[in-house]
Every structure is written in structure tokens, then in C-alpha cells.
Amino acid sequence: MVVAKTYKDEIIKLIDELYESQNDNIEAAAKMMVKAIMNNGVIHVFGSGHSVGLGIDISNRLGSLVPIHIMDTADFVYRGGVSIEEFTDKVNIFERRPNMAGRLYNLYDIRENDVFIVISNSGINGVVIDVAALAKENGHKVCVITSMKHTTVEDSRHPSGKKLYMFGDVVIDNCGPHGDALLPTNGPEKVTSVSSICNNVVAQTMAARIVELLKEEKVELPILTEDEERNQKIRKYYGGRI
Amino acid sequence: MEIKKKYVEVLKQQIEKAYDTQHEKIVEISNMFGKCMSNNGVVQLFGIDHDEEFVNELNYRAGGIAPFHAIKIKDLTLRGGVKVADVESGSIYLPENVAKTADALMGLYELDDRDMYVLVSTKGNDPLVLELAKRVKANNQKLVAVVNKASYDACGGTLLDYADIWLDMCSPEPDVALNLNGVKIGQTSSTVANVIAQMLTAETYRYFIEKEGKAPVLFSANIKGADVHNNALTDPYGRRIR
Question: Which residues in chain B are contacts of A183 at CB distance < 8 A?
Fold first, then answer.
């Protein structure tokens, strides 16, 4: 039966499964990020559609890491020469298109030791795959967050036929079901979804571990605290990169 | 306890608390959503920054219910002629400017007297959210508020003065789950709010099945055939929901 309690019980189970099955991958990703941050790198986070939530969730709050840069698809319109009509085209859907990502990628100050987190539940669309491919071509490490149950049964919409996870130095499975919808019904549809919640759990646990590892290295922690003056200093240090 | 595990345990406790303390109101609000939608109304959603995560969790979501619509700050800059700098500087949110901002924002959409509203504000004190709340109530439309009650009380929120009914994100103030020898990290409020949004989806589905025998459930846009199914649900609303 589809009621609030069924969802609550199922999401708790899924969060446990996510922790048990992905802890090692999240640990590996955290170490990769720590190495980058210690070498003056920043973390570029890219997701389109509902996957934008992950970057937002771990940014700009008390305790958030500062060296995080969210690559925003709206920048295609603000600065990338894409019209709003093209961006919101309901037929030739923008996020599915190949060969567009360079216009976004080249807008940003991306430096040698930077790393990438690229998120897509399906992992089949043109723009995310191209961002990950560009990052790899330019010698950056890439962490991919995707639903392995989804991505392995749908065809890629990228001309290479490749899926996003193929570009990951570390791949984290958000453990969500195919199509993201969770609860079965008496009809053909499934209802409610999980990816935003699972992605937040991945991001928050990874961020917490990054801070813990940085603390063990005894470096000045690049995180937001209640000291606003200190926060401004850290933000200024990273400047236009974030 | 290992830090990632610790985060997961705190989060799960808060999700349980959200279910225990909020589920009766979740049922009541879902019935309000169902009634509004059955009467050709749309549930309008609005929140700023991190509060937009909750909005995104109900708006055009895989496994979600179709007749929701998000009022988005980004639309002001993408389509409303507002400068990005005025959003980033926060000037559009200043008390003296919110009436103008609300006019611009609400002028972008096809809003309808049959609609109801969900306004999300962790602290319940965003001047722009309060401006929208006043307008919704002046027009005799139903208003649901979502706040983090601990933050609301600490920050002197007033949003609940306008709400017909409200939900609590059940997270602490400040919103941190972990304390590493005095270093506060790891936010939970948005993820708990996302779980609440999904419980609302489940109960709204239950309402539709009980009353009408079928429910307008969207499929993930990233499975074959989904576009046709989803467009059939959303096209009758025209610009009211996409």
C-alpha cells in the first residue's frame, strides 16, 4: 500500500543499503577530494535536472566545505550564448544534447589539481557525459554518482554509446531503482522517488569524511563556521574559482 | 563510530521523528492537495536557496504527481529581465524591494484562483516568502508552510501566522548533525524535508486512488516512452505547470 509509512520504511532500508554497499566507494572519493584540496584544488560539481540538488545541499551552510564550485546549466543562457528558447525546448530537450558541454566547461576557471563530481541518475544524457569526458581529457579525476540499476538498462543518448559511469575514477551507486520511482502500485506506475535523498546522503557523508581527513592532516579547515570574518577570508582565497 | 555511519544514524533518527510527529498533518495536507488538484487547481511551490530542494522534490518529478508548479527565483533572471547581480547581492530580497520582486515573479506565470500554495522557509522569516504569504491569504487561497521549527523559533519567524497548516523539518538549530571536537558539520534539514515531500507524494497518490481510482503519476524522463506519457498528463494544463 502506498502511504507515508511505506515510504518512510523503504527509504530507511535504502539508506542502510546505500551505506553498507557504497561506504568503500565514498571513502575512496573522499580521499580523492582531500588530495585535491590539499593541492589547492577545488571540487567542481555538475548535475542537471533534479541532480542539481546534491551540490546545493553541501554548499553555503554552517559546516559546508568552501572549495566547491557548482557548474550551473543556467550559465549556458547567462554566459554561454544559448537562448532561453533553446534551453527550454520541450522537443529537442537540452540536457540530452551532445557537443554542448564545452560551452559551459570553458566558462569556468578550472585548474590543474581540480576534481569533478558529476551526477546523473540515468547517466545517459549528452551534456553530463560530455562534461565528464572533457574533465578526463583535461587530466582531472572524476567521481560519478549514478543509479547503476537505471543506467545499465537504458540506451545511451550520447553518440559514443557510452554511459556516464564509464568516465568515473570512482563510481558511487546511489542504489535507486530503474526510473527512480520506488513504491509499486496495483497499476503500471510506481510512485515516489529516491535519487535526491540518496544523492544527499552520499554527498553529506563524503563531505563529513573529507573534513575529518583534513583535520587529521592538521590543515586549516576550509569550511564555513560561525566566524563570518574567517568565512570571508576563505571565500576570498578561492575567489572566482568557486 | 565511523563518521559516515554516524551521519546516517542521526539522519535516520530525524526521519523517524519527522514521520512520528508529522504524519497526521502529512495526510491532511495531501488530502488538501488532492482536493485542489481534483478541482483543476495546481499546487504552487516556492522556496529560496536550500529551501528550493523541497520545491524540486515535488515539482515535475519521476514517480511524482503532475499538477505541481515551482515558482523559481531563477526564472526572474532567465526570463524576467532581472540582473543576476541583483539576485547575488540579495537586493531583490530586501524588505523594501520584495513587493516589486513578488510582482515580477508572479507575473511570469499563469496563476489561478483555484491554486493553493506551499511556501518553504527554514527560518520562516524571508521577507519575500512572507510577501507571497500575505498575497496568498489576501486572495483567500490555502497556504501550507514548511519550516524548521527550531530555526524558526531561534530566528523569530512569522510565516506560520499566515499558514492554514504547517510542517516541521524536525532538524536542530543550527542545522548540524556532527561535532568533530567543536567543528560543526553535516546538514540534515533539506534531506528530511525531501523525505517529507516524498511522504506527501505517497499520500496524495493514495487520495487519488481512493477518490478517482487513478492518479496522475509522472515517469522518469529518462526511460523509453516516458515523454509521451508525461506530456499527456501535463499538456492539458498548458503553461500552468511547465
Answer: 63, 202
Work out the number of other CB atoms within 10 angstroms of the CB of residue A107: 15
Residue B242 has pLDDT above 80, yes or no: no
CB atoms under 10 Å from CB of B90, counted, come to 9
Tell me the residues of chain B between 80 and 99 that have a Cβ less than 8 Å away from chain A: 84
* ipTM of the shown complex: 0.96
Domains, chain B, in order of start with CATH, read 3-234 (3.40.50.10490)
The whole-model pTM stands at 0.97
Cell numbers placing B104: 515580477
**β-pairing verdict for B68-71 and A68-71:** unpaired
Give the integer Cα–Cα distance in Å for B74 and A124: 26
Q: B49: phi > 0 → left, psi -120 to 50 → alpha, else beta; which?
A: left
User: What is d(CA A25, CA B4) in angstroms, rounded to the nearest whole number?
Assistant: 12
pLDDT for the residue numbered A1: 82
Interchain pair B183, A61: CB under 8 A: no
- pLDDT tens, residue by residue, B156-178: 999 999 999 999 999 999 999 99
The residues spanned by each domain of chain A are: 4-241
CATH of A4-241, one of 3.40.50.10490, 1.25.40.20, 3.30.70.2860, 3.40.1160.10: 3.40.50.10490
pLDDT, tens digit (0-9, with 9 covering 90-100), for A150-187: 999 999 999 999 999 999 999 999 999 999 999 999 88
Q: pLDDT tens, B51-66? A: 999 999 999 999 999 9
